Amino acid sequence: MSVVAETEVEAPEIKFVDFDEAFQERLVALQVRDETFCRRTEGLVKPEYFESRADAALVSLAISYYERYKRPPKEATNVVAMLKDAIRRGVVRTDMIEEIKDKIKVVFDPSMDIVSCLDFAVDQVGEFARHQAITAAMLVAFDHLEKHNTVKVQEALEKAFRVGPRPNSTPYSYWKEAETRTEVRRAMKMGEIKPNGISTGIPAIDRLLFHKGFGYRELTVFMAGAKKGKSFTIWDFAKLISMQGYNVLGVTLEVSTEVLSTRLDASVSDTPIDEIEGSIFAVLESIRSVRDKKLPGELILHEYPSGSFRPMDLQDLIDRYKADGIKFDAIVIDYLDIMAPNRWVQNETENSRTVWVDCRGIAQMENVAMISATQTNREGHKSVTAKAEHAAEDFNKIRTADLVISINATEEEMAKGEARMFIAASRNQKGEFAIRIKRDLSRGHAIKEVIGFE
């Protein structure tokens, strides 16, 4: 656990003098936008360290927000709202307003890369804080040394050397955090902060889910029998997530990127898949229109042979994009059952379990919503409604996933272009209810609209 040094000696004014203006602006952007940075450097970054008063003001607002909600503001609208409140309360001087507004534009500029520099920034802040703590502790230690109190000398220096970034796992005090949890729930209910999830792109479904969408740091799995629309469903959601401005990484182990992109073209352009070749330029114009109006986030697809892609390969892929400044919000894998474990063993159930556990661990570490699919067993394939016990081969999959949704359709429902999404298992909410939907797989639409609930 990180320790922030406390000393009895009044320290001189401290500034990030070794950090140039551009790096200090990145630190501001990280404090305002990145949850990992805020969590790992909590207590180490102080507004008075910044040379620019606008930087200091924004950091002060962001730290106050984090202390209250245990998450950074992330969005410019939240920062502007905080600034207006600070102006109203007289916390921010009127002569600083324009300067702060300009700085907000800088830290939220799309060209401001805070992904590739995250680990370096955390290390630099940690080194800076440790250096300051040791400097202050030495003054205290000399005072104790003159009094021949070597125990106090050792305590002061050891405490200073422990100053640094927090590890990725931080302690959480259940009893002490009761007020914080309550404030987060109140603010979420009032719409002051957003739920910790990514919208599915379909409000009627969002309202039924615990995170009002796909949860960050969680694994959502769609389950169905063979050729029942699992792949269509997860890629349709990948498209909907990207169209909201989020970055999506897609890994396909079953169909080629050529086939997959054709399905996505059909969905985006609302064109039957088998008519795309006869409507080449009309499809292109539709895609361009959506792209220009929606300003979608990245939707990057990678194709690998079945049984060759491992969780460690996924982590390597994520790291490579982070180095290029791309941070993913969601990862779609088609699908976990045909991935390979990091290390093969003779027990197939254990191989499957480690793939699922390792991938969910990546979702937690990378703070992404992970979406995949899995097969039902034969009984589930024949059932009117597939339930948790119908997962094929290994029930550990149900234990590992945070949300399992089965896709069901009788012959009559399929003839009408309808299906049911059944909440088969959920870690965070009650399940065992169905969402009736309209769909048109011939045009790549796994969900066109919600038509009822059961």
Automatic annotation (TrEMBL):
Record InterPro entries: DNA_helicase_DnaB-like_C, P-loop_NTPase
Biological process annotations from GO: DNA replication
Domain named SF4 helicase: residues: 197-384
Keywords: ATP-binding, Helicase, Hydrolase, Nucleotide-binding, Plasmid
Gene3D superfamilies listed in its UniProt record: P-loop containing nucleotide triphosphate hydrolases
Membrane spanning residue stretches: none
The keyword Oxidoreductase is assigned to this record: no
Protein's recorded name: DNA helicase
A GO MF label: ATP binding
